[in-house]
Amino acid sequence: MDTRKRTILQALTEDYINSAEPVGSRTLAKKYNLGISPATIRNEMADLEEWGFLEQPHTSAGRVPSDKGYRFYVDELMSKAPIGHELLERIRSTYQSRVRELEWFIHQTAKLVSDITGYPSIVLAPSWEQGIFSALHFVGVGEDSALLIIRTADGFTQNKTVSIPKELSLAQLNALAQDFSRQFAGVSMRDLQNYILDPLSTSLFEHAALWQTVLGWFLTEGSDDERMTVAGPLTILNYPEFNDINKVRRVLGFLEQDKAVEQIVHSHPADGVMALIGSETSIEDIQDCSVVTASYRVGQTVVGRVMVVGPRRMQYAYVMTVLEVVSDELSQALKWA
């Protein structure tokens, strides 16, 4: 694509992103000082439409970018958006809290991203099944019951109220829990679910039924059903593309479907920040949307994603910069959690 067409496509795309109104040749000539006549711009736009970079809405003389046009804009034309000092400090202060629990970070991240970008956000927590077992302990909540708390190496916790065996006191139960933690710390949750207890470990083998119950709970209750946190779903109503109630229903439905979000992650496993535009998501309900996603880490391992869902005319440069900063800060916070 020659320089003139690139300039026109960039100007048209950015104008449409900001205005939500189809863009005509006269608008480009007046607003962007391109140094060429509206007639020349119109001819260039016709070529861009023929090549699949622009589309013409049914009732408008103006043009809008197609998925192909947005993709070219993001990959070839878009400049990286700067992030102001005040916003940077706001992001960093979120992760300087004394709270060190993963769940807190996940919920705060989802809220922060939606508040800053003005779009619905999704944060996928680290997968429970892929986590590394760290420790478990019991907290008494009654004469014959206790709260079982299980923690993974990345800081994720699960808890459940369980019955205390009659032959064991809470202190004895926690002594066994310490023994269990020492033996199995560092084992993946997936392997732990099928682990055969070592019969040479007398104290554990003596209470094998108890630990098999615990391992059974890992399998049934320690699932990824609550892995996804969503914030700001109704912000989608702020954009004229979603004046159609059926479109709104489809987007809100997608935001409630863990499996659909997981499908995007599994289909696009790339590290870093990435934009998926319209049909690139492969999800029918959000064909009118784009999704920007960024991975975050615990140590050197990618453990989750931060995502933004918005109209195809999303402020890509701004959103991608925000997600890059947020994912880096979240990764640093989890490193010390």
CATH architecture annotation of the largest domain: 2-Layer Sandwich
Low-confidence stretches: none
What percentage of amino acids are in beta strands? 15-25%
Q: What is the total tally of β strands?
A: 10
Task: Kindly report how far apart the N and C termini lie.
Answer: 49 Å
What is the H level of CATH, i.e. the homologous superfamily of the largest domain? GAF domain
Sheet of most strands: 5 strands, antiparallel
What's the total helix number?
13
How would you sum up the global shape? elongated
When the domains are counted, the total is: 3
Q: Average pLDDT value? A: 86
Q: What do we call the CATH topology of the largest domain? A: Beta-Lactamase
Radius of gyration: 26 Å
CATH class of the largest domain: Alpha Beta
Topology as a string of helices (H) and strands (E): HHHEEHHHEEEEHHHHEHHEEEH
Structural class assignment: alpha+beta
Which strands sit side by side, in order, in the main sheet? Answer: 7-3-10-9-8
Q: How much helicity do the residues have? A: 40-55%
InterPro entries: GAF-like_dom_sf (IPR029016), HrcA (IPR002571), HrcA_C (IPR021153), WH-like_DNA-bd_sf (IPR036388), WH_DNA-bd_sf (IPR036390), WHTH_transcript_rep_HrcA_IDD (IPR023120)
GO biological process, one term: negative regulation of DNA-templated transcription
Protein name: Heat-inducible transcription repressor HrcA
Keywords: Repressor, Stress response, Transcription, Transcription regulation
